[in-house]
Design goal:
- Helix 1 (42-63) packs parallel to helix 2, helix 3 (109-115) crosses helix 10 (301-312) and helix 8 (230-256) runs parallel beside helix 9 (271-284).
- It contains 10 helices and 10 strands.
- By secondary structure, it is α/β, with parallel strands linked by helices.
Length: 331
Amino acid sequence: MKILGIESSCDETAASVYADGNILSNIIASQAVHQKFGGVVPELASRAHHKSITATVEQALSEARTGLGDLDGIAVARGPGLMGSLLVGLSFAKGLAVSNHIPLIGVNHIDAHMYANFIEHKEAYPFVALIVSGGHTRLVYTEKIFQHKLLGKTRDDAAGEAFDKIGKILNLPYPAGPVVDKLSRDGDGSFHQFPRSMIHKGLDFSFSGLKTSVLYYIQEKGETYVQHNLNDICASISEAITDVLVEKLKKAAEKTGVHHILIAGGVSANSMLRQKVMSYAKESGLNLMIPSIQYCTDNAAMIAVTGALKMRENIIDDLTLKPFARIEKGC
């Protein structure tokens, strides 16, 4: 089975070819235009997708030495995400599918982050997934493939949003998450005790209070103090966010009694989070699945592998497939 995956849910135009357990290509065209704005501008993102999607897909097919006639399916992200960006990828995928008589598979972007783990790990169910990305922080229990139960979600800012917004307060370049992570490695996480909102309350998340706490702290201490202690402040912020994430994951694993846990999404690339989750899994005797860094952030390989799993389960879509911007229930 050979699947072309297309991802355009936010500001990454990506294409990948997956065949029989192997990623043959994984091309990502990033959009630098958003950096000067400190965040993604939806209109600019959709225009950039228009400009790059044809070349990105062609490069993925070329690198995989695959023609359109060799494909068994075309998988495309249909949401959640920016509606204009999603429409670019979905329309392009539909055009390829109908003109070449290739089955079309719509993929939930959040599902794809979870199933990206199965690029490098053997499928194992049931599992609890901690999905942490720029726009989503969720705990999901998956009893069987594509049978998901939402255990907890963010009530305000997602973990990735918290990293980026706090980074903006600290005058760090966008996206700030990786920068905070890098600075944290040379800092002391016990330097300042920032709040761990809702850490002992249910399985939902809240990070807006942390953002406000950091803002007041910075205003009180002043710019010179902050720059002198930037590594320690970043480490303290990282400790606060990752403590909450790991504690909620522990509670979800204990509640469901699973033997398999996984983390997924862009923030799963965070070194402190990875270390804490690995330590917890080792202490608890749980099987932990974490994607390689290249499969944590938005990419098309995760779309392609999820599309292959859906085809295996005979879940195929048609040209009535529509995008969606938000996800409210489950995954």
